[in-house]
């Protein structure tokens, strides 16, 4: 049975704490992790955490939560280095992540004194994980042969406070943020205990004629205002999560066009951070231009409440029936 080599003498079982001003926020409690240690000097740093049952889509974790865990681990691993900020990330969702314990490995791929650095972040769980599964207490309790990869990410890390260079916006092609005055509050279908949502009342959604019963498809675009219910401010970890927190754009086509209730699980996302996040809300715009053979891309722009662009993202999704995605189809 393969195991990792001896552990270097680094701090063990240390909790990864959120900043003091954030410790009371639920999102930080949900994404809390413990540092177990580093596997050799060039090996991965290993963290223990839990997949929260408050961030599920159907019976497994939403991609937003895995993004948050991965970003939090990457930033902790770089906390004492020059590259404190995620510049971009690519995450592949390889397997469903049910609620229960997980480990997160952060491995350096490229180090740098002052330039950009690259790291790999992998979220793993034991094969038959459940809420009753014990979490590894020390690095010695972690046997990688018993674990299955749930998500695999590559992070480009840098320091936005020291970046220099031209700043330019093409006014003819730039994307404008959704308008605050168009937002009407509506309960989100997922993560209701954690988030509040405002929807753009000008969105064209699918509508069914009461007389003819014919459903007219809407537009494959989603615009919203989203924030934490407890008022937690936005930061890199939250912005990463919000890049994958939106109602599927395909839903606006309606069930008749889609062939019934469906989900659009994300295969892969790229997120590029444009500036250090600020504010307590995100204005999000998510647009799909093509759906071909059930696969679609979603381009996303995330702004703060002042209209400043914080991040852009591109999703690669596939449309599948909800009954295939979730064991309990009544949850939709």
TrEMBL record:
Residues 1-20 are annotated as: Disordered. Residues 193-317 form the Acyl-CoA thioesterase-like C-terminal domain. Residues 52-124 form the Acyl-CoA thioesterase-like N-terminal HotDog domain. It comes from the Eukaryota. Gene3D superfamilies: Acyl-CoA thioesterase, double hotdog domain. It holds the Pfam family 4HBT_3. This is Thioesterase-like superfamily-domain-containing protein. It comes from Syncephalastrum racemosum.
């Amino acid at each position: 049975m393969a195991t990792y080599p001896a552990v270097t003498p680094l701090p063990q079982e240390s909790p990864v704490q959120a900043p003091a001003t954030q410790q009371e926020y639920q999102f930080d409690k949900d994404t809390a992790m413990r540092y177990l240690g580093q596997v050799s000097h060039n090996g991965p740093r290993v963290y223990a955490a839990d997949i929260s049952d408050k961030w599920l889509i159907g019976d497994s974790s939403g991609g937003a939560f895995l993004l948050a865990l991965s970003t939090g681990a990457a930033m902790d691993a770089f906390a004492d280095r020059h590259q404190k900020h995620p510049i971009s990330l690519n995450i592949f969702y390889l397997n469903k992540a049910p609620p229960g314990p997980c480990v997160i490995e952060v491995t350096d791929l490229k180090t740098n004194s002052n330039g950009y650095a690259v790291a790999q972040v992998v979220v793993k769980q034991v094969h038959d994980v459940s809420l009753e599964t014990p979490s590894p207490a020390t690095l010695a309790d972690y046997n990688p042969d018993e674990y299955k990869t749930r998500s695999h990410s590559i992070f480009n890390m840098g320091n936005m406070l020291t970046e220099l260079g031209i700043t330019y916006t093409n006014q003819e092609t730039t994307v404008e943020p959704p308008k605050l005055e168009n937002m009407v509050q509506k309960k989100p279908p997922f993560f209701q205990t954690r988030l509040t949502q405002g929807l753009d009342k000008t969105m064209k959604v699918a509508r069914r004629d009461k007389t003819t019963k014919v459903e007219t498809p809407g537009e494959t675009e989603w615009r919203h205002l989203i924030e934490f219910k407890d008022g937690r401010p936005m930061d890199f970890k939250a912005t990463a999560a919000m890049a994958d927190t939106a109602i599927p754009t395909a839903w606006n086509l309606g069930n008749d066009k889609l062939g019934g209730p469906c989900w659009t699980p994300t295969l892969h996302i790229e997120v590029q951070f444009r500036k250090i996040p600020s504010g307590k809300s995100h204005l999000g715009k998510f647009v799909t231009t093509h759906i071909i053979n059930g696969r679609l891309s979603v381009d996303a722009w995330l702004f703060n409440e002042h209209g400043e662009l914080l991040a852009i993202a591109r999703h690669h999704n596939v449309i599948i029936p909800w009954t295939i995605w979730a064991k309990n189809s009544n949850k939709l």
